[in-house]
Amino acid sequence: MEYKLAPSILAADFAALGEDIKEIDTAGADYVHIDVMDGMFVPSLSFGMPVIQSVRRVTDTFFDVHLMIEEPERYIHEFAAAGADGITVHMEAVKDIDNAIGHIQKAGKKVGVAVSPKTPVSVISDEVLKQIDMVLVMTVRPGFGGQKYMNITTPKIKEIRQRIDELGVDVDVEVDGGINADTIDTVLSNGANVIVMGSSIFRGDIWENMAFYRKKLGEYA
Ligand code: DX5
Ligand code: ZN
Q: Tens of pLDDT along 157-177?
């Protein structure tokens, strides 16, 4: 299993977004995690296609686009064209998950399926697991950076990792929200292998933070 570090640019300095992305890139980010919010599925708004298109020019690193929007099916094509490499949709937001997966695959992108903290991972069927590349277990309520890790999500990480192993499919388990020096061992030891981090990377010295968490992932690899 490959362990991946995915800094979330929601916590970056938007006045220097290109510079911040170059810095995480040089420091060894595996993915750039990009949070798109529509003010409907979640209370807040963030950014959309034009921003993704612009930052696409500064790096070739995998763009892990997390769509926190209602009926994401409507925009898959546009996010793919803007430069997404992987597109993650929420089970709670799609009209029809098979249709959403079909759109993402047709665009030639990696497919992620997300569940909010209160949604059980059982809503993701074995049939869906066999078609996708990643499950995103939200470890805070989607919508804002800087929240506290919700302990009720730990058993969900373990459960989905177990099901993936039993099925023998190659699916990553990503966690997102409240991951820091105190919580990272919990998610890693329960089966997560793609670690999203906003505040923990962009608050303070980006370079030092990246080095610290890279080393941490190295202990599990
Ligand atoms: C929350 C977003 C996260 C957020 C994580 O809705 O999906 O990606 O940026 O931020 P931290 O790591 O600060 O909890
Ligand atoms: Zn996210």
A: 999 999 999 999 999 999 999
Active site residue 182: no
Ligand 1 pocket member 8 (CB < 6 A):
yes
State the ligand closest to the CA atom of 143.
1
Q: How many other CB atoms are there within 10 angstroms of residue 106's CB atom?
A: 11
CA dist 124 and 140 (Å) reads 19
Q: What share of the chain is helix, strand, coil (3-state, %, to 5)?
A: 45, 20, 35
Contact 55, 26 (CB under 8 A): no
Is the beta carbon of 33 within 6 A of some atom in ligand 1?
Answer: yes
CB of 146 within 6 A of ligand 1: the answer is: yes
> By the 8 A CB rule, do 173 and 135 touch?
yes
Which ligand is nearest the CA of 178, by number? 1
Backbone angles phi, psi at 115, to 5 degrees: -130, 135
Q: What's the rounded Cα separation, in Å, for the pair 135 and 127? A: 13
Q: What is the share, in percent, of the chain residues with pLDDT greater than 70?
A: 100
Helix (H, G, I), strand (E, B) or coil at 176: strand
pTM over 0.90: yes
Task: Specify the ligand 1 atom closest to the Cα of 143.
Answer: 6
- What CATH number does the domain located at 4-218 have? 3.20.20.70
Write the pLDDT tens digit of every residue in 4-19: 999 999 999 999 999 9
